[in-house]
């Protein structure tokens, strides 16, 4: 991961890092073989920097952590899900533009 502000969420730490977070969390479900996931990665880094302290940003590798994507019905990647207070607020699927991610974040701020 390019930015130190982008967390690596796993099946093991998801509850503590995402569901129990006191700020909204953006979770990018991705895989190393996914070209659109690679295309959106710099945007995820930018969002993490611009919203540092307001929103936690992280990624779940779906190949290494199959339980979380299954629990949240992730069928295509990249899928980006916004969590607030331990609940799903909204989600988008695909390599979306920055404006769409910012609109997603505004729902939680």
Count the domains: 1
Q: Quick one: how many beta strands?
A: 5
CA-CA gap between termini: 25 Å
Strand fraction equals: 25-35%
Return the CATH architecture: 3-Layer(aba) Sandwich
Helical residue percent band: 25-40%
Average pLDDT, to the nearest integer? Answer: 95
CATH T-level topology: Glutaredoxin
Written as H for each helix and E for each strand, in order along the chain, the element string is EHEHEHEEH
Strand order of the largest sheet: 1-3-2-4-5
Radius of gyration: 12 Å
Largest sheet: 5 strands, mixed
Oligomer: single chain
Q: What's the CATH C level?
A: Alpha Beta
Considering the protein shown, what is the CATH homologous superfamily? Glutaredoxin
Number of helices, counting only DSSP H or I runs of 4 residues or more: 4
GO cellular component, one term: cytosol
GO molecular function: protein-disulfide reductase activity
Family: Belongs to the thioredoxin family.
InterPro entries: Thioredoxin (IPR005746), Thioredoxin-like_sf (IPR036249), Thioredoxin_CS (IPR017937), Thioredoxin_domain (IPR013766)
């Amino acid at each position: 991961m390019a930015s130190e502000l982008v967390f690596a969420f796993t099946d093991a730490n998801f509850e503590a890092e995402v569901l129990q977070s006191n700020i909204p969390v953006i979770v990018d479900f991705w895989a190393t073989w996914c070209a659109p996931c690679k295309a959106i990665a710099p945007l995820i880094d930018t969002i993490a920097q611009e919203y540092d302290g307001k929103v936690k940003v992280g990624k779940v590798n779906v190949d290494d952590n199959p339980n979380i994507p299954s629990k949240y019905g992730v069928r295509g990647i990249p899928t980006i899900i916004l969590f607030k207070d331990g609940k799903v607020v909204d989600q988008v699927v695909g390599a979306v533009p920055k404006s769409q991610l910012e609109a997603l974040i505004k729902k939680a701020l």
